[in-house]
Design brief:
single chain, Lipocalin, globular, nine-stranded antiparallel β-sheet
Length: about 170
Amino acid sequence: MRNVYLLLLASVLFSACGGSKKISPTNTSINNKTSNNTAATNKPAEPEKKEKVNPTGTAGAVAGKWRFESASEKDFDKTDFKVLPELSFNETDRKVTGSTGCNELNGFFFITGNQFNFSPIAVDKKKCIDASLEDYLTNFFKVVGFYKTDKNRLYLFNKNDKDKYLVFSKM
């Protein structure tokens, strides 16, 4: 009878050992199915880009003054505007200030890796002769999600469609 109890105890222990699965930071799923949930790994999803993205994640990469150059999805004739939009990034307090070409703007920016976000941008509301560029920019700033700097140019990418972006030149 004692041998039967030992045999049962041994079989329970062996079956319990084989049924458990260690969970590691790269395998957060108990049943071996892979998980694409970026929150589970605490790592933001990397954007798929054809071009190299600035991986530093430092405000210094965008610090300084930048002048609007172009938008990927819309042509603006820059000769129609007396003053082109400008952005100035202060790396110490993460503050962005500038102009839409007509009205002054200010807010804050946040960088993590190649991810880039603006806080809600405050814009003065003076009467503009042509507000098309201002409207486009202020709406685009709400959906910026990624950035890159390359050859004195700053690219701000739409977080939902990386084929849409703004280009600013270093001043």
